Amino acid sequence: MSGAAISAENLVKWFGEGEARTVAVRDASFAAEYGEILYIVGPSGSGKTTLLSMVSGILKPNGGSVIVEGEDIWGMSEDRIAQIRLNKIGFVFQDYHLFPRLTTAENVAVPLILKKMNWNQALNVALEYLDIVGLKERAQLPPYKLSGGEQQRVAIARAIAGQPDILIFDEPTASLDGDTGRKIIEFVKAKILNEKRCIIIVTHDSRIYEYADTIMKMEDGKIIGFEKNHAYEK
Amino acid sequence: MPGILKIALKLLINDRSKFTALLVGITFAVFLMVMMTSMFSGILTRSSSSVYNIGAKIWVMDPAVNNATSSIPMPDYVLSAARSIKGVRYAVPLYFGTAQVKLKDGSYQAATVVGLDDATLYGRPELLEGNINDIYAENAFIVVKDAEYDKLGKPAVGSEFEINDHRGAVVGLAKVASSGLFGIPTIYTTYSRAITYIPSTRFTTSYILIEPGSESDIPVIQQQIGKLGYQALTRDQFVGKISDFYTFKTGMGMNILLMTTISFVVGLSISGQTFYTFILENLEKFGALKAIGAKSNELIAMILFQASFTSLIGYGLGVGAASTFMILARLRMPDYAAQITFVILGFALLMVLVIASVSSYIGVRKVLQIQPFDIFRG
Ligand SMILES: Nc1ncnc2c1ncn2[C@@H]1O[C@H](COP(=O)(O)OP(=O)(O)O)[C@@H](O)[C@H]1O
Ligand SMILES: [Mg+2]
Predict the structure, then answer these.
(1) How far is B373 from chain A (nearest CA, A)?
(2) Does residue A15 line the site of ligand 1, with CB under 6 A?
(3) Does residue B15 sit within a domain?
(4) Complex prediction ipTM
């Protein structure tokens, strides 16, 4: 079941220059395996989002590399990286970033359309994924007519519609109440995670720690330790 | 349509209020630009209406003439000299002047009087009623049935009026290609009758009309006439001279240019501003698209498509509104001088494309600047 889906080696990122320079991530190395849910946890400002962004190909590091399928993505052209994001990585943003002017189904179809699937086919596939997240009957509504938890599920459907190997969640439960948050992660663990997929979740919501396979702790830009969640496996 | 453009379209038109504001801005700008330039074009055409209507190939005149209606009479020797130039098939005099016509009800109306060469009637109009040879009858006049016809009391063939204490009899009604600019009716008679009925200066020939043997004779004719101290212009040159006069010497051209520029700037700022706000409001969404894996040129295509789609619709609406306005205006005012030409349509399209390009340039710059990382950080 194992093998690294994605690995980071000695990632460094700083912002600003000279006096104003703040180092957001120092020398971070880790690997996320297929079939696991990896949590990145730590206090606010510890560099979680910065690290996640470098790993997922949207923020260029000042040093180090990110290996996907044996290749360093940061050695590639911008368009190649975009291509990798489109085909290999699914994003669930903290505030979802759904398109209010599109229907729920069209929102889910966006990555498919970017992959040049034709419109009708993309919408059909989108319906299948909306079905998986239990929102098929909401397909024609604009996302703002849905509740927060439902929007989160639409965002998940959009993230998985392109069948990515790696799913990235940034603070997925931050704007949900405790119960809804737990249900979403439970759902992700049961229905979205599989042997060929790796899920990385950034959070500081300790109520959902129990669903992690590995918890990676950060502090002040450094990775300070890993913890395997044996309790859950039992 | 590629899916990505369909998304772009939906993002645009499903935002009803912004889309409407964009359309209003562009439509308004196009409407104003088309109205301004059409009005000017109409005025220019009408200012040269006599030149078009008479249709001679070459016009000989005093170099100081810059407007068909204000001719400067030429001495008779110019006509004989013109007739002896090699390459001139024939040359005839034309009388062009203004007279007061006294109508049946006793009121006066100014009219343009065109006196055609007795022998050839060169420059004669097309008749709607009557026979051209009746122009030789006693006191005969032919009235042009244009927008000004009503001002002579809608005279029928056989009716009469007084012109400078002479009797005038209407023997025909004529049709002309273009109405005049000055809002006064036109009547045709023979050259000899015109100069006897209308008090004139020592010289009576307003213009000499020349029919050249062939096109290639024209430069020689122009040169020879030039040597006499007069000017021979082809029809298009004369029209050009008149247009230049109105455009550059009357302030009219400057005004129209100014108004057109203002319409353009107003349209550009309304649409540019609205499109910019639209892009700003959607910036996060474009950032999310970028994060998901849209390439830069796909985002550019989306913005260009949105801008050109809006512009072309606005262009259509603006041209439609201007045409409708002109049709309605002409129903109420037969004299309303405005004409939409292909040049104007092309010009307005060009201006709209400039608006679209400026707007999309701003949008594209913004969208390319956005970092997906900023979306991530929220
Ligand atoms: N664009 C930026 N410009 C300047 N500083 C930044 C920027 N992004 C992040 N930082 C800084 O980097 C550090 C880590 O930020 P971040 O990765 O967002 O932390 P976390 O997600 O753990 O809360 C913080 O000190 C933050 O202020
Ligand atoms: Mg963060």
Answers:
(1) 6
(2) yes
(3) yes
(4) 0.88
